[in-house]
Amino acid sequence: MSKIDKFESLYKIAQHFRDDLNNKDMVLFFAYNGTGKTRLSMEFKEYGKQNSERDTLYFNAYTEDCLMFMTALLTREPHQPKEAYQ
Fold it and tell me: Number of C-alpha atoms within 13 angstroms, CB side, residue 78?
């Protein structure tokens, strides 16, 4: 059975994920809507800004929408809702 860890703050979770990445290629994180995934990803990104160097490419649904829209403009294809791409 897996161990369940409890953390005091988003910063501590971000730090834990960073530590995990020292030994692994990736960390897969799943959580239901409204549980703070976006806030955690922002904390993870901020944690990576140490020494004024950034090491995290921040990607979220807004970024995805912008990329889809720009691709549609550049390829002259009409922009369609996300469901049309699936």
Answer: 3
- Of the pLDDT bands very low, low, confident and very high (cuts 50, 70, 90), residue 12 is very high
Spell out the residues 6+ positions from residue 40 whose beta carbon is closer than 8 angstroms to its own.
10, 13, 14, 29
- Single-letter amino acid code for the residue at 86: Q
Q: Looking at residue 82, what DSSP letter applies?
A: G
Q: How far apart are CA 83 and CA 71, in angstroms?
A: 16
> What are 81's two structure tokens?
């809702």
Cβ atoms of 38 and 60 closer than 8 Å: yes
Higher pLDDT, 51 or 38: 38
Helix axes 37-47, 10-21, angle to 10 degrees: 60
Tokens read off for 28: 């897969």
DSSP symbol at 4: P
Q: Is the pTM of this model over 0.70?
A: no
